[in-house]
Design a protein that fits this description.
Elements: H1 6-15, H2 17-26, E1 50-51, E2 58-59, H3 60-66
Antiparallel strand pairs: 1-2
């Protein structure tokens, strides 16, 4: 079952139910516990520029939009 074309692999797996069960068991992506992609903005879903302080969980762009509404003051 070593081949570079994924359509051939799927066709071979349909013919062999035992290998299909094994393939579906071990080919599932594992659940991630930490890292950048687990910290997403609660408002828009971005992963970059994440602010998690005070339990905000916002990206910097969304924080700038709603900072005055949630009680932050801008100092010059």
């Amino acid at each position: 079952m070593t081949t570079t074309d994924h359509t051939k692999v799927l066709k071979q797996l349909q013919d062999k139910p035992g290998k299909l069960i094994k393939h579906s068991k071990y080919s599932v992506p594992k659940k991630r516990i930490g890292g950048v992609l687990n910290r997403k903005c609660a408002r828009c879903g971005r992963t970059g520029g994440h602010i998690s302080k005070y339990g905000l969980h916002l990206c910097r762009q969304c924080f700038r939009d709603i900072a005055t509404k949630i009680g932050f003051k801008k100092f010059n």
